[in-house]
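Protocol step 4 of 5: obtain the predicted structure for the target chain.
Materials: sequence only (see below). No template structures provided, no constraints applied. The aim of this step is simply to have a reference model before the mutagenesis design in step 5. Sequence pasted as it appears in the construct record:
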Amino acid sequence: MIHQASPRGNCRRLHSGFTLIELLVVIAIIAILAAILFPVFAQAREKARQTSCVSNLRQIGMAMMMYVSDNGGYPMHSSPSATRPRTRWADYLLSYTKNEVLFLCPSAPFDLFKKPWAHNPMRFYGGYGYNYQYLGNARFPFTAADAIIQAPAQTVVVADTNGCGFDVGIRNAGNYAVDPPLPSARGSRPTTPGDGFYGQGSECGGVWGCRAVPAERHSRMVSSAFADGHASAMRLSRLDDSNSDGVPDNGFWNGLGDPWQR
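Step 4 output (structure tokens):
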């Protein structure tokens, strides 16, 4: 008897697995999904940081209210430069917060964390600046009395800051201050290179000049604490134009809520 070979024996064994084309398709799909999702994740992370920053500033704003209640006015921006250790606005508020971390903006670059605490010069804070032009400044010595601030809900006390000269690579100039768009009538803001910032000749050479600029670092928003204790985030264009007429004004800074006062 002649046995015929089974047709199955003559078939080649099929190999399981992906072909090169299939692998390339899968990789392309993963890359497309990653390109779609990564910005979403980054945006969600930054939103979480913004929430954390606003929370920090709300607590700083409440601490400022307690300080003002106890002292009848706002703290100095800083003590005279010859003072050792030198105390700054954050040092005055620390006893009310008991938390150094509150004074670190979670999205600020590390090279802004340069101000040493008076009680511990080995530890630093940064990323937030004080409205020293209207609340308290050692360069032209004054502190604002509580009664002077007639519009506390519209008066910035502390906000995200880039400091002065960040756009020309200087991070240590004015990095614990924040300025309104226009110099105040008190004359407390430097107007020329070397006028108050360690004699450096280029700190006023950038786009923003001598201004310690509020930082739009949270989804292009500036987080700010106000004199009534609340905190919020808004565009720099809004912060610089309180009456929305397209002309920069100091209405959110001068304590009066008046866009015409400097």
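Step 4 remarks: Confidence is low (pLDDT under 50) at residues 196-200. The beta strands are 115-116, 124-125, 128-130, 136-137, 142-143, 156-164, 212-214, 222-226, 231-234.
Proceed to step 5.
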